[in-house]
Fold these 2 entries.
Entry 1:
Amino acid sequence: MSTITSFQNPRFKRVRKLHESRHRRKLRLFLIEGVRPLRLAMENRFRLEEVFVCQGHPLSPAARELLLELDRRGVPLVEVRRGIFRKMLIGQRNEGLLAVVHTPKRSLESMPLPPRPLVAVLQGVEKPGNVGAVFRTADAAGVGAVVLADPRTDLFNPHTIHASLGAVLAMPCAVATSQEVKDYLQQHHLACYAARVDASQEYTQVDWTAPAAVVLGSEAHGLAPLWLQEDVPGVRLPMLGRVDSLNVSVTAAVIFYEALRQRQHGGEQVAGSS
Amino acid sequence: MSTITSFQNPRFKRVRKLHESRHRRKLRLFLIEGVRPLRLAMENRFRLEEVFVCQGHPLSPAARELLLELDRRGVPLVEVRRGIFRKMLIGQRNEGLLAVVHTPKRSLESMPLPPRPLVAVLQGVEKPGNVGAVFRTADAAGVGAVVLADPRTDLFNPHTIHASLGAVLAMPCAVATSQEVKDYLQQHHLACYAARVDASQEYTQVDWTAPAAVVLGSEAHGLAPLWLQEDVPGVRLPMLGRVDSLNVSVTAAVIFYEALRQRQHGGEQVAGSS
């Protein structure tokens, strides 16, 4: 295993570049920190270009096991002096491992869909933390896929990976324009609902047991006009308080779990049909 | 209106101290930034000691109206040079106003409770952002009160106020020890449920139409032993994915809205009783 001992090392410099989204986009590479997301990446067949190991860092048993497996698979392992390794990390927490990973294409065409899916569409969402939080909940609630429409952040942003606990690496997902997403949903016969505070229909009145998609916008910008047209029924969460909006990841969670509730209980409990 | 023109001004220095929770605790004062939370504080009868106004900052109509009202109520208004004012703020956004506010007592005894309440108990939660997010959702979902048990952050932390969109200033709430909270819930005949990933009962199986409380712990520390005893039934959200935990504000949101759904639909749709 070679060792990086200088801040002048080109590999170190490249990692530092990959802290910025424009370089990630240009180089079609991104970074994964920590054991758990790295394992998810390996299991989900991401192409790992190289993995950096922090010199002298006490590795957890899970980290050691992972390293052995990476080595078996022929992934280059590079040791890095601790002070230099720390400067490679974006997050606060050092688990001793950092990977440079090839950004895979995440297109609608190649996105696997389970039968009777619920698809979450995040339109124009800008905060990686929010995107990550939605992935984390989507994964837990059994959502079939998450689509970023017109994203204002990159899918494999380190903060997204972190906030998703790695779910963004494990779930079916895609990036596309709103028009492409709308066409896709139509072609796949998914009933499409837009989450909007001014909708007349409450989210509990929808039959979520059918194949469906829910479109969620950013808090700052709302939804693009395409999702506000008449062919997309709106749904809203009741809001009884003084505050007039909910965080997008909260709105998403409540709808995802209502869909799951209906699906688990056969859908006989939809308010609109009872 | 007097004007602060120096970083040596003792009022400036006090505001800077109030950025730290230990000084907020000692002085029993806290800070409110922005127009909306400030209005909520006024409407909810917080005692405003003084309000700083950023010199030359273009105030919104809502801000100007608020200032007039504060002036009518005799709240001292102090102008501050822009460069100094900026250093008084904790948040990124400058709306031109900052208030020093007396920390009110928030005890269980004085906490108003609506009839048939749902009470949210946050036990040992450490991140102000999470506490604020729970308040924001609780307000929207019609939760009766939010109680912090053994908090690891102060109730009126600026980040909590910000993340709650001010709801922490408007909602019934209290701070107490877990034992005090448990006694209180018993005295008030609230059925108490602990959110835990290892519970056998799903959250949809609970009858949330009765007066109830749900206790949520921190992601890092889990719940205190008091809430893991047999007299507190556990409830869990189904988790179908690779990720094995949910953010506390997401868990809270899903339970709050399930309770609201049951309450709005008369409770006939509880899974366990159908």
Entry 2:
Amino acid sequence: MHLLIIGAAGMIGQKLVGRLARDPRIGGRHIERMTLQDVVEPTAPKDASFKVLTRAGDISVPGEAAALMADAPELIFHLAAVVSGEAETDFEKGYRINLDGTRLLLEAIRAHGHKPKVVFTSSIAVFGAPFPPAMPDEFHLTPLTSYGTQKAIGELLLADYTRRGFLEGVGIRLPSIVVRPGRPNKAASGFFSNIIREPLAGMEAVLPVPDTVLHTHASPRAAVGFLLHAAELPQEKIGPRVGITMPGVCCTVAEQIAALKRVAGDKAVARIRRAEDPLVAKIVAGWPSRFDAKRAVALGFRAEKDFEEIIRIHIEDELGGKIAA
Amino acid sequence: MHLLIIGAAGMIGQKLVGRLARDPRIGGRHIERMTLQDVVEPTAPKDASFKVLTRAGDISVPGEAAALMADAPELIFHLAAVVSGEAETDFEKGYRINLDGTRLLLEAIRAHGHKPKVVFTSSIAVFGAPFPPAMPDEFHLTPLTSYGTQKAIGELLLADYTRRGFLEGVGIRLPSIVVRPGRPNKAASGFFSNIIREPLAGMEAVLPVPDTVLHTHASPRAAVGFLLHAAELPQEKIGPRVGITMPGVCCTVAEQIAALKRVAGDKAVARIRRAEDPLVAKIVAGWPSRFDAKRAVALGFRAEKDFEEIIRIHIEDELGGKIAA
């Protein structure tokens, strides 16, 4: 099978590539060739058993998507996106990459005519407050950000191109992915990762919201699992509603901290400094907190069972099993 | 006030222009100037008390929308669209007019920077089966046609451009508008009008579905009322969810026919010939039948109270009060 990953240099893209390098099968089929594309040239995995082609390019530039179709990839992961914060500060760039880029990709697929499977990463940002206490699968998409709007439009296009028989699409709405590896960043949601990752590494982290904040999380490993499961699902099981809210662990920040204490003790918890930031608190209040992801669960998508498992996965996958004393 | 109507040559556009020629006020403000645009040059109303400019043009052609912004219309009705059937048979034309055209219009408004009110006609085609027995305002948009997809994307864009402060948008989801004047056409929904209009004119009409089919209707007069009410609504009353399902009269075809009998007698009803068309029946089965349009009603949108009133409006507005013996 020939696989194309667009946005392969991002955090989830890299994790997906790593996972496939270790186990090069999807749905029982062997991967023979993989094309990794991103705006910066992605790194090819070492010791992969399949051929890897890397390519730097901008999918919003006409011709790029058509070039990616030249060798007819049978499975396409479309992970490329300008993130939430940047799509909000740079209106034009967000629409160019997230809307035009996605549409150019779908059009290139339609023009090529080979009907690939397309797995698209959407986001719970397609939802916007006010929310019911637990959002059902039938809740309407009411994004309150340009990023969420662009993702919702991507889902609608994917559904129509699927219905018309140009491709087989599935859009997976990811919850907040924690614990993100790397350094703290300025994303409003960054603290959900920071308050776990930094204390485990012996460093201080700032908590900018009250610890009553309720949110839904899944690990990077679970996110890769969602992508692979989506790729393996027969299209007839998905049906016309191709956008699917993924499951996750719903808990308060207090419960996150309690899990950290169980895993790493009081010393780790003491590294969390509380400093409320009203702006962050306001942004977070507009996000959905709890989902009733019945459809995803019925389709076999699986997240962690609790937040402690999310922390243990971070320690295994990022810290080689070791935490700071 | 300067008003722009895009798609002014269509049935609803013409009715809106006629209504404003008779009573040139919106929200207590006088209309001083009106620009009527469509792909064919619209007809200017006779004896209007305001200045009328007519213009033929294609909003999907770059530059057309910018030209329409040159004199900064404060209120824009965006009614232009490739209809459902054509958007399904001509994939590219549907996306070009309904998506690119709408986006070019929104971009021209953003570039001009004058923040007009924009009333966009959406459709209940943004919904797709399966449905709950009565669809709530919070039901998700799951279109099963390219037309419905394009209208849903239009709503999402309108909401984001409103939220960003580029314009003040409201999208009204029209139910089936009956009784459509003119000759029977090939639209799958045409029979809902045909079985009333033709018998009232002394002619035969074909009913291609079982008379148990349940559907929601409003008159052309009500549609114009929705547009004007939407234009008058203060934006803060609409909030971030700018797409609003309009109210209507929900009834079965049997109830439509019973209303025809009350208004025009057995002779009119005898002109309806039953000839089931499985293809039409299948298309109609995918359409939503009943809405719980609570939000629209709370915001003051009003449809007819029953189907008999819809028939009487047709007789008043189209037949000069006279029906065939």
